[in-house]
Amino acid sequence: MQSGRDGAQDPGRLRPPGLGLLLAEARGLFELNASLLLSPLLMRAPGGDGHPVLALPGFLASDLSMAPMRRYLSELGYEAHAWRMGRNLGGLERMREALRRRLAEIHAASGRRVSLIGWSLGGVYARDLALWAPEKVRYVVMLGSPFANDVRATNATRLYEALSGERVEDYAEAREAIAGELPVPATSIYSRADGVVNWRTCLLRPSDRAENIEVHLASHIGLGVNPAVLWAVADRLAQPEGEFWPFDRAGPFAIAYAPPERAVSA
């Protein structure tokens, strides 16, 4: 977050990740390679029931960034869909109608509720869609999505505003709703080592159908390909429709997950 137009820092507001974490984002390539090497292990995750899943890319990314996630979920038995809107140049208001049409199209074609996986800004879109049409949405998974607290606390805020034509301060009512409780089950997956988004902006309020999962040392650009993240996504989507239970951090990637109580500590 930039503290203000004059550059003065408000001590009560969150800051974006520092330069060291931002430069360390290059490790995302190693996370992708780790998933490729561990693919036989990843395929032991619970299988899908064939319901549709819509993958929403992050800011400046395209469907290509979510291709590994979609392929993995397809192999597990889900009907994985791309968003088909080109590169994500931002704009919650600008993209809202197209996103709603895409969700409605998938829902109508399948006759089933759609799970949403949103990476970074894509997760903000996913929350907005769930608020708009909970009868069409089955589950929401966010990967490093800055939807809560001070959402300016990212290293992409100024670029987002320049390219989208929208200021983060605009649409306060919509932002407040997106930061609140969703009418469908939701999981936020994040990392304290995120070099783009302050991890505190990714925390939802835990409830009987909402949880946070922290993955140790994951990068922001690697969240969609990190093996521990892929496993957690598969586990969450495998829950029967209408049911929810907390993520079991045991299993082949147990060492990668922080205990749940750590999500509320600073």
UniProtKB/TrEMBL annotation:
InterPro entries according to UniProt: AB_hydrolase_fold (IPR029058)
Q: What protein am I looking at?
A: Alpha/beta hydrolase
